[in-house]
Amino acid sequence: MNDIDAWVWWLVAAAGLGIPLVVTAMPEFGMLAVGAVAAAVASGFGADLVVQVLVFVAVSVALIAVVRPVAARHRAQRPQLATGVDALRGRQAVVLERVDGSGGRIKLAGEVWSARALDTGRTYEAGEEVDVVDIEGATAIIM
Questions:
Q1: Side-chain-facing half-sphere of 10: CA atoms under 13 Å
Q2: Residue 66 Ramachandran class (φ > 0 left, ψ -120 to 50 alpha, else beta)
């Protein structure tokens, strides 16, 4: 074991940290693996063990401190391009056939949709412009 260079051990540690990264999908393990690779590079340049450990700690902590908040912020953001049903919510439509709490028809995004009123006591007559509040299955909920 004494014949193996320190940089090899750091690469083994990096690979060992890569396994839980894949299994658990926790990016922190990847950042620690990058720190181990940086320590292997320092070892390859002849740095002593204390410097190698300091490089490992510094790179790992820097990555966790910088990358983790950025990743969390991106994960919390909603997609900028709405598609499918999400793109129809909030749009305006035109009533084709009388719409009340039990049903009717509207023209939404160039297509004819079944619709019902959000307020069951309210009716919308043909030609009125309405707002789409939600989509339930193939039925638009309007107000």
A1: 25
A2: alpha
What's the pTM value of the predicted model, to 2 decimals?
0.54
The closest of 4, 8, 1, 2 to 52, measured between CA atoms, is 8
How far, in Å, CA of 16 to CA of 93, rounded?
57
The 3 state secondary structure assigned to 22-85 is: HHHCCHHHHHHHHHHHHHHHHHHCCCCHHHHHHHHHHHHHHHHHHHHHHHHHHHHCCCCCCCCH
Angle, helices 6-24 vs 27-44, to 10°: value is 170
pLDDT digit string, tens, across residues 86-119: 888 989 999 999 999 999 999 998 999 999 999 9
Tokens of 137: 């299955």
Residue 50 in tokens: 């204390």
